[in-house]
Amino acid sequence: MLAYGSNACPSKITWLRENLGLAGDVLVVRAECTGLSAVWAAGFRERDGQRPATLAAYPGVVETHAVWLATPDQVAVLDVCEGRGKRYHLARLKTGVSLWNGMRLTEVFAYVGASPERMPLLVDGAPVRMEDVPQGKIRSLNGVPAPSHGLDIVIV
């Protein structure tokens, strides 16, 4: 599972354990992602009013994220947290992810926007990378939802 945004944050794992019953070890490895980016979503989370992350195609960009070697039970917990089928789709990314040792992964699961609120936020026609704009500033930017995330995926 490609972990980006809050899913790459250790405190999120603690929250999942305490609130949704996540069990077992969480094994994570560093990954290099080419041609895709963690970007800000168009909408806001209901529980805290923050803008969540989403994933978008972004040619020419290389970012470091993580791959969570999630068990099926852990994916089931993530499905609940991410609102699978409503807010986010669980999808197989077909390209763009390599492990720290250079091994290219041909298919990696990732959560991608399913609703307009979870599609990339477009400001002046472009997605806004999380790397470029902090959470405190992104709340005040106005834009529109992208019509697509542009990723080469298969929804699971």
Description:
- The protein has three helices and eleven strands; from the N terminus they run βαββαββββββαββ.
- By secondary structure, the protein is an alpha+beta fold.
- It has one domain: Hypothetical upf0131 protein ytfp (Roll).
- The strands form three sheets. It has a five-stranded antiparallel sheet, with no helix packed on it. Strands 7-4-11 form a three-stranded antiparallel sheet, with no helix packed on it. Strands 9-8-10 form a three-stranded antiparallel sheet, with no helix packed on it.
- A hairpin with a 2-residue loop joins strand 8 (121-123) and strand 9.
- The longest helix has 11 residues, at 10-20.
- It is globular and about 40 Å long.
- It starts with a strand and ends with a strand.
- The model has no long low-confidence stretch (mean pLDDT 95).
- CATH-defined superfamily: Gamma-glutamyl cyclotransferase-like
List the total number of helices.
3
Please give the CATH architecture: Roll
Write down the CATH class.
Answer: Alpha Beta
Radius of gyration: 15 Å
* End-to-end Cα distance: 13 Å
Percentage of residues in helical conformation: 10-25%
Strand order of the largest sheet: 1-3-2-5-6
| Largest β sheet strand count, sense and barrel closure | 5 strands, antiparallel
In total, how many beta strands? Answer: 11
| Rounded mean pLDDT score | 95
How much of the sequence lies in strands comes to: 35-45%
Global structural class: alpha+beta
The oligomeric state of the chains shown is: single chain
Give a summary of the structure in a few sentences:
By secondary structure, this protein is α+β, with helices and mostly antiparallel strands. It has 3 helices and 11 strands. The protein is globular, with a radius of gyration of 15 Å.
